[in-house]
Amino acid sequence: MVSNVQIAGAPKKQLSINPKKFILWLFMVSIVMVFASLTSGFVVRQAEGNWLNYNLPVELLVSTIILVLSSVSVQWAVRAAKNKELNQTRLGLIITLVLGTVFLISQIWVWSILVENQVYFVGNPGGSFLYVLMGVHGFHLISGLIYLLIMLVRAYRVDKASKIQFQLGQSATYWHFLDGLWVYLYVFLLIYH
Amino acid sequence: MSTAHIELTDVMEHDDHGHHEQSFISKYIFSTDHKTIAKQFLISGIVWALIGGILSFIFRLQLGFPNMDMAWLRPFLGEWINIDAATGIGKLDTEFYLALVTMHGTIMVFFVLTAGLSGTFSNFLIPLQIGARDMASGFMNMLSYWFFFTSSVIMFSSMFISTGPASGGWVIYPPLSALPQAISGSGLGMTLWLVAMALFIVSTLLGGINYIATVINMRTDGMSFSKLPLTIWAFFLTAILGLLSFPVLLSAALLLILDRSFGTSFYLSEIYIGGEALPNMGGSPVLFQHLFWFLGHPEVYIVLLPSLGITSEIISTNSRKPIFGYRAMIGSMLGIAFLSFIVWAHHMFVSGMNPFVGSIFVLLTLIIAVPSAIKAFNYITTLWKGNIVFTPAMLFSIGLVSFFIAGGITGIFLGNAALDIQLHDTYFVVAHFHLVMGSAAFFGMVAGVYHWFPKMFGRMMDRKLGYIHFWVSFIGIYSVFFPMHYIGIAGFPRRYYSFTNFDAFSTFADLNAFITISAGVTFLAQLVFVFNFFYSIYKGKKATPNPWKSNTLEWTTPINPGHGNWPGAIPKVYRWPYDYSKPGAKDDFIPQTVPYSETPESNLPHEQELAEKEKKGDTGIKVE
């Protein structure tokens, strides 16, 4: 398993972290840039006037809380894997998947409330931006759910939690990131809606 | 442990067995080997460059010879050549002219000088020059190429639909690009353009993420950042620029897709077509320009930086001198990379932007002259009093420096808002960016091909054909773009189909014809290169292990490096890559793998200290 050649000597080993981990972080940077550009576009466009003002539905807070809870449950799964509690890991993943799905459904529920409040996707960009931000985030969240689902399937195929620990950590990092991203978007929308 | 390590062990074991059989598909098509992927990018890039070149020649024919009968092009262009029923004279369709301009720009900027350049040389050189077996993720690397390939197929197919490819310019400003009523190319052609570009962005991000992760985490022992070849620094910074800017283009394109296909109004407002108002209200076309140029300006450096890195390496090697100001070169690249993100609005001086904001962008833009000048001076001072070896690669690198200076100077004109109001969207701009970014980056790419061809294919390219290629291209490119400055100052706007209706412009008709002829000759010279390239792959002279007497790690591999690059252990690095003509040394080059303890005759005092430490340290390889 471990590389069988070890090199010691004067030329120093270069500092490095696991490239796969690093790749995930870089991937998250590119997602940050997508949302940075969308939210700055939001601010720039809003400053030009002719902007639809609306109140953010309270229900959005509910979905935010659901997503934050899912972050707790995925972290619990990671910790369980570290303690070699495979069953707890599976349970944690299931809870996270359920919470994530509930979040997506509640986002669609928020959309229907927005439509009732006459904030539409087609129309003033003020409304359109809200739908785009929620939609693009939701799209990324689906990718996170798929990742977790793969981890859940694997968790049922292995006999030891240590076999999936690295990948589980990766998927949890991504999930926390998507959670943090949503909290950012929620606070952003609270300030600028 | 990560899977990466498992792969590495795998690779070494296979190499120990001598030869590792792979099926044709896994070796040449869906390969995860960085060298094969690099060649795939290179050959795709060459094909795209030829297509882009042909497109430009067709619209140059129209500009140079507006009265020409183009009926002979009908077998290729079909309905895009309108035959006059009375006279039988064929004319280029006016909307197709715009499509040609748009596709030429898109192809050259993205498919040739981004994917073809970074894709080739970052893939090929990063693992070889930092001492790694392969990229951080070979699978992602393979995906990167195949996303690019799919994107290419879609972009190419858009040229064969009845409404024509995208025609709103490579910058695709809405509302022109958003409304099919405005121009027929904004129908299906634009949709395909957006789909192709979305895939292209995915490809670039997959590639770029890999390059960054590899450079940071997979350097061999001793290869600190201050010992990295400048090529790697350039590719590394290019990848960072791409990682930060391409997602922004993706959001800009997403909003445009929503406007085009789902009825939103991000960019559209108060538009009347044939007296009827469109329903879209409240959009801002300037928002698109901001988002686009936030990518668009870094994109200029994504195109140029790899070429500057390649040039640094080639000029130093072939001047047989250390690169002048290694740290200044890195610093200036860092400076350029940073500044490239805060100057985007200099493309928008005439968009109705607040003039005060414009004046800030003037200041920031002009600051770029400082790191650019540092680079230009360092190239010249490296050449100064060097034992110059004029290989074709060296000639193209010197040509790059020439274009970089000639085109960069006009950038100072254009960066000033007051002058830009006069020069905006004229041929002066066309001349500026074709020299400084188009031709310079292209020359860097070609120089790289000549220089690393022996490593790619184990054979040499023909020198004489290389010289012909260089001199015709070099003179040809100046003949094309130098006169364009005059035409631009005279007020010729770019993207116009014809100038025959303006009396004031008739005095420049000869100059336009001259440009077109030069463009044709320059294009023919590229065919010499293409012939040389493909001929040499099979019939070229066999290469020696280190044909240019270079210091970097890629020349320590076998002539045809296998999967995993080095058959034994990865070499360790003791010194920087530019120890050329070191006083006291036996040869005029000392590869990076030579320890200071082996070169007491040429060591400087502080290097002698390092040599002592090396002797004390255990330099052997422990096999467990």
What does this structure look like?
The complex is a heterodimer of chains A (193) and B (624). Chain A is mainly alpha-helical and 193 residues long. Chain A has a domain at 67-192: Four Helix Bundle (Hemerythrin (Met), subunit A). Chain A has five helices and one strand. Chain A starts with a strand and ends with a helix. Residues 1-9 of chain A have low confidence and may be disordered. Chain B has 624 residues and is mainly α. Chain B has one domain: Cytochrome c oxidase-like, subunit I domain (Cytochrome C Oxidase, Chain A, Up-down Bundle), CATH 1.20.210.10. Chain B contains 18 helices and five strands. Chain B has helices spanning 3-16, 24-29, 34-64, 74-77, 94-130, 138-157, 188-217, 230-262, 285-319, 326-339, 355-367, 369-383, 392-414, 417-423, 427-457, 463-489, 509-539, 605-616, and strands at residues 81-83, 90-92, 272-273, 276-277, 621-623. In chain B, helix 3 packs parallel to helix 6 and helix 5 (94-130) packs antiparallel against helix 6 (138-157). The longest helix of chain B is centred in the N-terminal third of the chain and has 37 residues, at 94-130. The two termini of chain B are 17 Å apart. Chains A and B meet through strand 1, helix 1 and helix 4 of A and helix 1, helix 7, helix 8, helix 9 and strand 5 of B.
Topology readout:
The complex is a heterodimer of chains A (193) and B (624).
Chain A: E1 5-7, H1 19-47, H2 59-82, H3 86-116, H4 125-157, H5 165-192
Helix pairs in contact in A: 1-4, 1-5, 2-3, 2-5, 3-4, 4-5
Chain B: H1 3-16, H2 24-29, H3 34-64, H4 74-77, E1 81-83, E2 90-92, H5 94-130, H6 138-157, H7 188-217, H8 230-262, E3 272-273, E4 276-277, H9 285-319, H10 326-339, H11 355-367, H12 369-383, H13 392-414, H14 417-423, H15 427-457, H16 463-489, H17 509-539, H18 605-616, E5 621-623
Helix pairs in contact in B: 3-5, 3-6, 3-17, 5-6, 5-7, 5-8, 5-9, 5-15, 6-7, 7-8, 8-9, 8-10, 9-13, 9-15, 10-12, 12-13, 13-15, 13-16, 15-16, 16-17
